Amino acid sequence: MTIIDNLQNFAINSPSKIAFSKILNDDLALQSITFKELDDQSSSLSSAIKTHLANSLYIVVLLPQGLDFIITILAIFKAGKIAVPCSIPKRKNSTDRLLAILEDSGSKDIICSKIETSRILNKNDEANFKGITWWNYETLIHQISPNNISVSTNPTAYIQYTSGSTGNPKGAVISHANLLHNSALSQKCFQTNADIKSISWLPNFHDWGLIDGVFQPIFLGFQGFLMTTTQFIKNPRLWLHAITEFEIDYTTSPNFGLDFVCDRISDNELSGLDLSKLRTIFTASEPIRWNTLKAFTEKFTPVGFNNTKFMTGYGMAEATLYISISPIDTAPIFLTVDNDCLKENRISLVKNGHILVSSGKIHEGLKISIRDTEHQQILEDKQIGEVWVAGESISLGYLNKENLNQTLFQQEGEYFKTGDLGFLSDEHLYITGRIKELIILNGKNHYPQDIEQTILRTDSHLIQDRIAVTSFDDGTKEQVIAIMEVNRNFPSDSYKDFLMNIQRAVFKEQEIALYDIVIIQYGTIAKTTSGKIQRKENLDKYLNQSLTKLISFRDIYEQR
Amino acid sequence: MNKDNIALWLKERFCKACKVATNQIESTDSISSFGIDSVVLVTIAVDLEEFLGKEIDPTIFYEFDTIEALSIYLLEEILN
Lengths: 560, 80
What we know:
The structure holds two protein chains of two kinds. Chain A is α/β, with parallel strands linked by helices.
C-alpha cells in the first residue's frame, strides 16, 4: 500500500470530486483539479519520466506551491523514483543550498518550470550546474508514452531536506510506509475525513506544507485549498476570508503566522469574516506562545472563534511530520512554571510565572522517552531532558550519512534523538529548548555555522572558530546575537564600520537582522579544550553580562 | 515622482516600523541596522507596491541596503 492506492481509489470511486483548489487572487478565484484529473495527469507525467529519466532515481522538484508541484510529486512516486522537493532559489547567487543538495543526493535531474529555469540560470553561474539536466515541467507533461503507465513505487517516497547547514545538508529518507503511518496517526487526532475541507499556505517543499497541504487531502479524499506563502504574507486576511467563504474545517499555522494575522488585520477588517464553522487551527514548529494564542482568541472571538479550536503539537521532518498532537475540541493545555528554575532546566509549578503550552499527547504507534543529556537514563515526569522518539513514522535516517545515523537514529536500536529539550507531564509533552544549536526564525531554520561563515568573510581581523552565533528568546521573539574576538592588531578606531559591515553582510546573505554584535577581549571566548566554539556558554555570559566586552552593536545603536 | 519623494516615503515607513521619530534615521544608514524582522520587511514591500503601483520583490531590501541606494534603484529600474 502507498498513497498512490488512496489516489487511485478516489479517482475511481469519486472521480468528479475536487481534490485541490488553488486560490489565484484576492477575489478568491480558483483553479481546481478533480481526483480523476490528478490521477490521469500524474500518470501521463509518470510515463514521460519513465521514458526520459529512465536511469535516474533521485529527482529534484523545483516548482512553486500549487497543482503542478503536486502532479509532479505523484508522478515521481508512480514512476518508481524518489522525489527531492526543494525551495526555488529566488535571489542572485543563491544556489549554494540547491547545489549542495544535488551533490548530497547524487541527483542529476531537476524538474522545473520553463520560466523559473531561465530565471535561476540568468541570476547564477550556469557552469555550477554542469552535468545537471533541467527538465521543463510544461514539456514533460505533454509527452505521452501510453505503454508506460503501470505503477511501480519505490519503497522510498521522498527525501526531506530541512536539516543541516547550507554546506552540509541532511536529507531525511521518508518511505511510503512512514508517510502512511504518520498520515493515519494525524487523521485520528484531527478526526479528519473525506467530507472536510482544509486550507494551507505553508511551503510545499517543507515537511509541514507537504504532509498537511498535499498528502492529507489525497490520503483521505477531501478537498484541499492552497494559497502561497507570499499570498498569505501580502494579504493575511485572504486566509481567513477563504476559511469563511469555503467553510473550511481545518487549517494550520506556525506561531508567527498567528501573531502576523493579529498585527495586520484591523478590527474594521473583521467584518465579513466568520470562523464559527472552522473546527481546528493546528499550531506547532516554533515555541507555542500563550500570549499569541490568547491575543488571537481575543481578536477573533467576535467572528466566531474560541480557544477550543486551537490544537497544538510537535513534529519534525525526521519523524515524517507529527510526533505529538493535543486533544481536539479542547482549549490549549498549559502549565505555569517558575521562570528562574526553567532557565536552569528544572520545572517548579507556581501560581504566577511562565506559561508553557503543551505540545500535545503521545499517540499510539509512537513512543517518546525523555533522557538525561549526559548519561541517557530515563527521566521521570516533569524532569527536563532530551526528547527521544521511536515508531513507524520515524525516518530510517539521513541519506548517505551512515555514521551520523547510527548515533542519531539507532539509539537502543530504535530511538531517534531529536536534539530538543522537554519533559512529560500527565502524558503531555512540553518543549523547553534545544540542545542542537538550530535557530528558528519565523518558522525557518538557520544554522549558526552558516551565519558565522558569513561574518568571518567580512574582515581579515576575524578568526575562524572564534565567532559564536547563538540566539535567545526575549519573551516575544527569538533574537540572534554574534559574539567574537578580533586580532590584537585590530585598529580600534574602526569598530563602528566593522560592526556595520557584519550587520550588513548577515542581513544580505542570511536575511537576518542581528539583535547584537559583541566584540570581546582576545582570548576570552568560551571554547572546549579541543578548540570547538561553545555557543551556549558564550550566550550565558552575554545574558548575565559577564563577557569581557570591548564594544557592541547595541552600545552604538542605543546612543542614536 | 522623484527620488526625494521615494526616499521620504521609505524614511517614514521605516521609522514607523522601528517606532522611532523621523529624524532618527538617515538616508545613508544601512537598513540592516534597523533590526527589522524579515516578515515586517515583506509588509513594507507590500505597502511600497501600493505607493509606487509596481510589483516589488521583498528581497530588494537585502540587495540595496540604504534608503539612498534603494530610492535610486526604485526610480531608475522600477519606475522607468
